[in-house]
């Protein structure tokens, strides 16, 4: 058993396993990093969607109230409770001209109306200013939160990159040390193999010089199974008797080959003759078939000519005899002359 080769295979296997393990760890680290980034991005997207939905709800609540719609008076659930009688007083603005309760041009409620309109405009202006300030405050708060989130995300990314670079540096250092040790072991192993090879070559040269191969001993070619079993690497050639046997066997093979070729030639000639006979019979059958088709065609032409003459005679008879009496107006006038 070659213990050095087995040890070298074990070391190579360990090196390969260490490299595969490092590669798997690197892939796992990359997967964890990508998963963390995806989680952070998903969380950021969820927060942005939540903020947008919150801002949309606030906008609907502040600027699109149901009371501000033009058709709210038609859909107001408290319409009956808010409704007033047909007339409250003489100053009721709902009094129409047809009711003759109030006439155009009097404008008895001018002062109250103007005061109410100014108060209403002031309230609207204050409400709009308040809503605008609230919207600005909410936007500023959202921007601050987003900036904080971005800063925290950037800090986490920088921390992950720093850890990754540190781990990569440690792996590179360990790999260099391992490669240096392996190079030293490989150099020592090569020196040992070189010395062993030189020793083996010297032993082989000594064995060849003292062996039967260079001394050309004919008995060295006899194998362990008998005289008919020859060792090829030690065989020095055949004698005259063996050469005569081989030449006789080659002559017999040549005669057998000539006999086989003659049989093949005769078989090919027979096949060619049968093929020519079949082709000649096919040609005769086709000519006979063509002659029959020509006879049938002539008979069919004669029948078609006779039918054509009969059809022409029938058409002449119908035109001159059957359809010669053309109806007149008197013929049609005799119909529908009674109630029946």
TrEMBL record:
Coiled coil regions in record: 178-205
Cellular localisation: Cytoplasm, Cytoskeleton, Flagellum axoneme
Superkingdom of the organism of origin: Eukaryota
InterPro entries tied to this protein: RIB43A (IPR008805)
Protein transport found in the keyword field: no
Protein name (record): RIBC2 protein
Subunit and interaction comment: Microtubule inner protein component of sperm flagellar doublet microtubules.
Keywords: Cell projection, Cilium, Coiled coil, Cytoplasm, Cytoskeleton, Flagellum
Main location group: cytoplasm
Range of residues in the leader sequence: none
Location of the region described as Disordered in the Swiss-Prot/TrEMBL record: 68-93
Pfam families noted in UniProt: RIB43A
Family (UniProt): Belongs to the RIB43A family.
Organism: Poecile atricapillus
């Amino acid at each position: 058993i070659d213990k050095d080769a087995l040890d070298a295979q074990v070391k190579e296997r360990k090196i390969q396993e260490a490299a595969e393990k490092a590669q798997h760890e690197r892939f796992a680290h990359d997967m964890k990093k990508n998963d963390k980034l995806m989680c952070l991005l998903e969380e950021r997207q969820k927060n942005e969607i939540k903020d947008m939905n919150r801002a949309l709800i606030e906008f609907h609540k502040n600027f699109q109230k149901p009371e501000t719609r033009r058709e709210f008076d038609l859909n107001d659930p408290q319409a009956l409770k808010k409704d007033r009688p047909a007339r409250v007083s003489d100053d009721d603005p709902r009094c129409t001209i047809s009711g003759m309760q109030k006439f155009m041009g009097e404008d008895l409620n001018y002062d109250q109306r103007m005061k109410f309109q100014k108060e209403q405009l002031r309230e609207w202006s204050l409400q709009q200013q308040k809503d605008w300030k609230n919207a600005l405050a909410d936007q500023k708060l959202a921007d601050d939160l987003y900036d904080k989130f971005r800063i925290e995300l950037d800090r986490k990314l920088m921390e992950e990159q720093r850890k990754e670079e540190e781990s990569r540096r440690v792996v590179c250092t360990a790999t260099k040390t391992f490669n240096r040790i392996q190079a030293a072991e490989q150099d020592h192993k090569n020196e040992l193999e070189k010395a062993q090879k030189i020793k083996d070559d010297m032993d082989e040269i000594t064995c060849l010089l003292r062996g039967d191969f260079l001394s050309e001993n004919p008995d060295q070619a006899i194998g362990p199974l008998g005289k008919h079993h020859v060792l090829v690497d030690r065989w020095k050639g055949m004698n005259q008797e063996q050469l005569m046997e081989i030449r006789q066997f080659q002559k017999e093979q040549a005669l057998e080959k000539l006999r086989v070729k003659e049989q093949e030639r005769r078989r090919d000639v027979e096949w060619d003759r049968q093929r020519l006979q079949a082709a000649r019979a096919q040609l005769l059958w086709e000519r006979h078939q063509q002659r029959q088709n020509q006879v049938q065609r002539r008979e069919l032409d004669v029948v078609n000519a006779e039918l054509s003459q009969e059809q022409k005679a029938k058409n002449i008879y119908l035109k001159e005899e059957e359809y010669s009496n053309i109806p007149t107006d008197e013929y049609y006038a005799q119909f529908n002359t009674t109630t029946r």
